[in-house]
Amino acid sequence: MDDFTDDYRGQALQFCQKWLQGNTEFVVPTSGSTGQPKPIQLTRAQMAASAQMTLEALGLGPGDRALVCLHPGYIAGIMMLVRGLVGDLALTVVNPSARPFAQIRGEQFAFTALVPLQLQAMLAAGEIDDNLLIFNQMKAILIGGAPVGSALAVQLQVIQAPVYATYGMTETVSHIALRRLNGPLRSEYYMALPGVILGQDPRGCLTITAPVTQGQTLITNDRVRLIDARTFEWLGRADNVINSGGVKIQVEKIENVVDKTLTYLGINRRFVVMGLPDERLGEQTTLVIEGDPLPPATRAALQAQLAIGLGRYEVPKSVRYCPIFPETATGKVDRNQLKAVVLAV
């Protein structure tokens, strides 16, 4: 990895130098998508264990080329570097832009990791079709950082190489489970990587015990349905619940129905469901859509479809709009900042 001419590549080089010098501890910030970013201290052993699990699960080995196009200051980008260092992969580092393939022009890779926003931008620009041979020859493509919507999942079916959604967080040193998104093996369930022990706490939230947690049991805030010892369905975050008139509503359930409804109506926009203050109900379920207001007829069709797919208390009581959603440094929608923007209007 040479020719580091910008800050992103400089950060990547700085991390690699620390790793090669034998540093045993690293401080990594959380993404800040569900709260204020906070520093997490990770050990070299944890990071190496995580990298090894991924390398083995995806069949990656010495000499395989990996495209690093995620921010090297956060766990997703950092672990792409660690996988390269541990697995002796050939790394190509580019700026974490919306269209990273525009920076590499026809080069071949065995592996990369992306966020949904990058895939959406590449699809809109026709770059998936233009680079389909490159994608199809990869051993694996990881997608993380945000949920993969229905429309994007359909568009991914043109890719023959395995495409996986990831489950993980900074505290688990990137992903500990994968879900196949394309092809005949696609699934609604996540499967844990080898060496990961799953469980549930009394709330129904996932617990994780693995080398990446140093053998300690990590209790998450993610509600899941355990299918078996290694497989689970993600239901939503325990702290992402709207209390409307005493009825507790899981945000992710509503967002799943909204996503499918917008896809059915041919609308490809980002959205968020949130609870806004309401004098009578305490919180009111609100749908916030990025961009200009929908035409009245489309808005009516959306409301009618949501009334079919959701319960009485789950249907959003209002639809609001925000021209551009605020994002965290890792490209996730900043829900806290978005809520402040909507309330200020």
Characterise the protein shown here:
By secondary structure, the chain is α/β, with parallel strands linked by helices. The chain has two domains: 7-237, 3-Layer(aba) Sandwich (Rossmann fold); 241-344, ANL, C-terminal domain (GMP Synthetase, Chain A, domain 3). Helices cover 30% and strands 29% of the residues. The chain is built from ten helices and 18 strands. It has an eleven-stranded mixed β-sheet with strand order 4-3-5-6-7-8-9-13-12-11-10. The protein has a three-stranded mixed β-sheet with strand order 16-17-18. A hairpin with a 4-residue loop joins strand 10 and strand 11. Helix 1 (7-20) crosses helix 3 and helix 8 crosses helix 9 (296-309). It is globular, with a radius of gyration of 20 Å.
Order of helices and strands: HEEHEHEEHHHEHEEEEEEEEEHEEHEH
Q: Architecture of the largest domain, CATH level 2?
A: 3-Layer(aba) Sandwich
Tally of separate domains: 2
Rg from C-alpha positions?
20 Å
| SS field, number of helical segments | 10
Helix content: 25-40%
Basic shape: globular
**Neighbour order of strands in the largest sheet:** 4-3-5-6-7-8-9-13-12-11-10
CATH superfamily of the largest domain: ANL, N-terminal domain
In percent, how much strand structure appears in the residues?
25-35%
Query: What's the total number of strands?
Result: 18
- Top-tier CATH class of the largest domain: Alpha Beta
The assigned structural class equals alpha/beta
**Main β-sheet: number of strands, strand sense, barrel status?**
11 strands, mixed
Given as residue ranges, the uncertain stretches (5+ residues, pLDDT < 50) are 1-5
CATH structural fold name of the largest domain: Rossmann fold
